[in-house]
Amino acid sequence: MNYIYSVLVVFLAFHSAALNAGDRWAEVVLDEEPVLKEDCRVANIGVNAAQLIYYSSEAPLKDLAKMSMPWSKESPSLEADSNGYITSLGDKPVAYTIINDDNWGRTEADDKYVLLYEGEGTLGFHLNAPKVIKSEPGRIEIKLQKGRAGMFLSSINPNNHLRNIRIVPLKDEFNYAEEITRARYRKLWEGVGVMRFLGPQEINNSTEVEWKNRQQRSTFGTKNGMSLEDIVQMSNEMNVSPWLLVPHLADDDYFRSMAVYVKNNLNSNLKVYLEYTNEAWNWQFTQAQYLGKKAKEIDISHHIAYGQRAKQLFEIWGEIINDDTRLVRVIGTQFYNPWASERIMDTPGLDKVVDALAVGYYVGGISPDEMMDLSPDEIFDQIKKEVVSKANKMLIEQKKIADKYGMKLIAYEAGQHLVARGKWRENEAFVEKLIGLNRHPRMYQLYMDMYKQWNDVGGGLIMWFQTTGQPSKWGSWGLLDNTSQLPQNSPKFRAFKDILRANDCS
C-alpha cells in the first residue's frame, strides 16, 4: 500500500476544548545562579512528579507520543495490537488521538517537531493542526501551533499497520532515545534527592495485574501512565532516586519482574523507595475498596490486609535487591490518624521488613464559610496556628510510632491543602480566593515554617507535592503552574528552592 499523507482540520464537539495559550508563551527564565554546586543532590528533599498526559502541566519527556491520548475506541469494531496501535478501523472511518495541549508551558521557540513511525496508512492532523513542513514515508516534519493538537488515522495497511510513533523535537531527532528527559525539566528540579512517580505511574485506581500487560516503553499514549523503563532512564539522567509505587492488583510475578528490572537498570549510586499502592486508607480510590473487600473475605481488618500485601512485596524485593543501602521499604499512613499507623504495624512480621513510615504532611483545614469572611493575612494567621498546634501534635505522635518500630518518619507528600470541596467547587469567588492564597507572598513563609517544624520533630525525607499543576477548582497543587511559569512568581517554588539551598549535598 502506498503511503498517502493527508492533513485535515476537523472540528469535533468532544475534542473542541482547545485552551487559550495565554501567558504560556513567556520564555522560561531560571535563576542565573545555580541552585547547588554541580552534581549535588539533597537526599532528604524530594518532590512528587505530576501526571503524564496530553493536558498535563508538564512534559518531562521529549517524545510527545509518550503523553498522547490513546487512540480512541468509540467503535467496538476498532482493533489494536498489544502496544495500543490500531490494526483495523472496522466500520469506523477514523481513529483519533490528541498529541499536545500546551498546558505544560511550551514556548513559541519549541515548535519544530518530527513525527517518526513504521508501517503504512493515512495520517492527518486536526484541531489546532500542526503545519506540515516536509513529509516522506516514515517521517513527517511539523510545526506545532498554539493550543490543542490532534491526529487521526483514516486508513491502514492491515499487513503493515502504522506503529512505533514518536513525536520529538527536530533538534533531538537523533538522540531522543539516548537522552529522553528535557533539559528544562532537569534544570528546574536539579538537586532533588528523590522523585515520587505517583502521577506518572497512574497508581490510583490502577487496573494493572500482570507484568506482560503493563505500560511499556513501546506502548502508544498514556493508558497506564509512564513505563517503568522510561522512569528508570529518567531517574538515571536526572541523578535522582525514584520512589516507585506498585499497583494494588499486581501479582507476585509483577513484583519480582519489577524488582529485577530496577536492580539491573537503575544506576548503582541511586536508592529506590518502594511503596505498595497509594493511600490504601483513602476510600475514594479503588485500591482502598479492593483491600476492604479482601479484608472482609478473610475476616481481618482493612489495615492488616494492606500490611500483609505490603509485607509480601517487601519480602520479594528484599530477596532480589538484598542491599539495605539501595532499597527503602515504605509504609504509607494517614497523617491525622496515628491510630491507623498502629493498626497497620500490628501486621505480624511487618516491622521486620519496613524501613520508613510515610505520612501526607498537609496543612489547611479552615472552613469555607469562615474563610470567605477573612482577609488573606487573617487566613494565614489561622493556618500558622494549625501548623504549630494540630499538625505538630500529629507529627510528634507519628514520630513516636516510627521510633517504636525502628522506622524513619518520612513524608510521601507535603504542602498546603487549600482545596474546595462539594458545592464550594462551583463557587468561583471561593476558588479564586484559594488560588490567590497559593500565590500570596505569605505562602513562602508557610512552607518554610512547615519545613522547620518537620525538622524540629525529627522528620527525615520530605516529598513536596507536586512539581507542577494548573490551579483550578480541584486545587492548586503545583509548586509551579507549569514548566514555563517564571520561578520568581511562585512563592511555593521559591521556598522549595531555598530549602534545597539550605541543605548539604548527599
Written description of the protein model:
With 506 residues, the chain is of the alpha/beta class. Among the domains are: 4-30 and 62-172, no CATH class; 197-354, no CATH class. The chain is built from 13 helices and 18 strands. It has helices at 183-188, 198-201, 228-238, 252-265, 286-297, 302-320, 338-345, 368-372, 376-388, 390-404, 428-438, 442-457, 491-501; strands spanning 4-5, 42-48, 79-80, 86-88, 95-100, 112-118, 121-127, 131-136, 139-143, 149-156, 163-169, 192-196, 241-246, 272-276, 327-332, 356-364, 408-417, 462-464. The chain has an eight-stranded parallel β-sheet. Strands 1-7-10-5 form a four-stranded mixed β-sheet, with no helix packed on it. α7 (338-345) links the parallel β15 and β16. α4 (252-265) packs across α6 (302-320) and α5 crosses α6. The radius of gyration is 23 Å and the shape is globular. The N and C termini lie far apart (57 Å).
- As a whole number of angstroms, the C-alpha radius of gyration is 23 Å
- Terminal CA distance: 57 Å
Unreliable spans are 1-35
Average pLDDT, all residues: 90
Number of helices: 13
The tally of strands reads: 18
> Into which percent range does the helicity of residues fall?
25-40%
Shape: globular
Output the structural class: alpha/beta
Give me the side-by-side strand order of the main sheet. Answer: 17-16-15-14-13-12-2-18
Sheet with the most strands, sense and barrel status: 8 strands, parallel
Beta-strand residue fraction: 15-25%
